[in-house]
Amino acid sequence: MPKKPVTDRNGLTEEQFLQSYDAGMYERPSVTVDMLIFTVMEQEQDNYRKLSEKSLQLLMIQRGEHPYLGQWALPGGFAGVEESLEDAALRELYSETNIDNVYMEQLYTWGDVGRDPRMRVISSSYMALVDRKTLDVQAGDDAADAGWFEVMYDVLESGRKELAEGYVEEQRIRITLQKEDIVLSGVVTITETVQGHVRRVRREIAENNGFAFDHLKMIQYAIERLRGKVEYTDIIFNLMPPLFTLSELQRVYEIILGRELLAPAFRRKIADSVTETDEFTKDAGHRPSKLYRYRVDRGSR
Amino acid sequence: MPKKPVTDRNGLTEEQFLQSYDAGMYERPSVTVDMLIFTVMEQEQDNYRKLSEKSLQLLMIQRGEHPYLGQWALPGGFAGVEESLEDAALRELYSETNIDNVYMEQLYTWGDVGRDPRMRVISSSYMALVDRKTLDVQAGDDAADAGWFEVMYDVLESGRKELAEGYVEEQRIRITLQKEDIVLSGVVTITETVQGHVRRVRREIAENNGFAFDHLKMIQYAIERLRGKVEYTDIIFNLMPPLFTLSELQRVYEIILGRELLAPAFRRKIADSVTETDEFTKDAGHRPSKLYRYRVDRGSR
DNA sequence: GGAATAGTGTCTGTAAGACATTATGCC
DNA sequence: GGCATAATGTCTTACAGACACTATTCC
């Protein structure tokens, strides 16, 4: 059955309308994507019989231009008119790490008015998780203006004030990024207001040493989300190499969650997310460990 | 200690740079916000001794202009250059429902290239939860072009194909919105691809009767998030009136989750999210029920 | 008494927390 | 044998699922 053409109050069909539409009528904000590219790195150990320590790392770029010249920012850039937001994020990811085909998800879109002093910019943040071992070593490594920073995340304190019909709860979180002798550090306050049965959450930068724009907030938010998602999804395996030991996996969990886990409970919990192989670690100064891989035939959690 | 001015390769300080910056250099997408305003409504019951049925409702607007003239869309509009994204969302919310001070959160930012036939538009979707009883009755009620639709969400089937290094899992979800004799209906397919240890999720509209733009995808995503969040946060109380019975609360859970719950387990679970009052329901055709309120002094879950 | 819903008691199975114990390779 | 880590056994506690049962009001 043929559709009868729908016309608007000017008698135009949709096709006619679109041809006459002027896209330049309104003043517009710019749109960018900012990438939170996380990986896990091993640190060399003094005692060769001990396991090597691991740390969570984040890729940052030192700004060579105003604004925030000399400060460190997340990799990112403008979204083109002919590419999707996700494509823009993938493009930025590839240009920084030479990697595609890794886990990536959109986190949040930051739309405050003053976030960029040049002009109105709205920015979508995307988180990518990469396995350091499959990363091209050059990526963001040799460049003087880019590098992997170890991430530290400390909850400083939590205050609480009672109100008539609710309360205000404030949390202060210190984020420290370290790359050799470069240390960036800042504090984000998260204010949760509950009034009646309405809950509001606000994030503010309370202290900032070395972070450009509002990127400190983005980093705090990303770590919070990473922590949450690690508990109820399998995304952690995106940070692991194809073969890993259960102890390594447990360490990565512990680094991300910021607390220690008990081995028996841990093994029970991840038991059906992994498959064992016939291989073992070699040449450790102690009992070898069985190697596992991510069990891909299991569906999502 | 006075800071020494940082200058860039052109010898400009940040202040000088910003004064000379031309914000109009790049072609830009437009930015809009789209609102998913949910509420819970009671339906009149034929048998007065039975409890009244409840349903989840979503506010939609019929388009009076091209494109998608006559179809139904989420309320929304352009984000101004002088307002934050969140302010734009609050403004839209207020203009549709005359309500502010309700629960609202950003869900996702939709950035595909072809989502609006007029031009490139990027849209942030926000979800708001409102208690129908405190809603001004007129809002979106009498207007012929706006209204509350009952939401139905059915998982149709889930197929799965094994691949060499992973699998593809497809889920088809039917969304039906109904308002008296107006029925909108569509199917969203969610495709989850796992290759190696990389997981990707894509959403496509497989069938569409009456929804404008990609709003069907937004609705599906919002319900998915609402379901998830209801299980591990207290947001559900934003849909409840100040006083409610535990049975009512359980019904609302059941409507959102799409499955029945057992009363004893339910009561244990929400026990410390609520406080009992001295009041009871009256004039029901059966045993009166104690009224509870949201327990606000308890912190977040 | 019957209809309808409100609310509680309790058994069972599963899973997490905690701690102890055994196993293994390398020096 | 001792160091360091790998891996498992098992006790306890907590809690979710299931079902049966009691309670209360209105007709």
Automatic annotation (TrEMBL), chains A, B:
High-level lineage: Bacteria, Bacillati, Bacillota, Bacilli, Bacillales
InterPro entries the record matches: NUDIX_hydrolase-like_dom_sf, NUDIX_hydrolase_dom, WH-like_DNA-bd_sf, WH_DNA-bd_sf, WHD_NrtR
Gene source species: Paenibacillus jilunlii
Chain segments annotated as coiled-coil in the UniProt record: none
Domain Nudix hydrolase: 28-181
SUPFAM superfamilies the record matches: Nudix, Winged helix' DNA-binding domain
PROSITE patterns, A to Z: NUDIX
One matching Pfam family: NUDIX
This protein's name: ADP-ribose pyrophosphatase
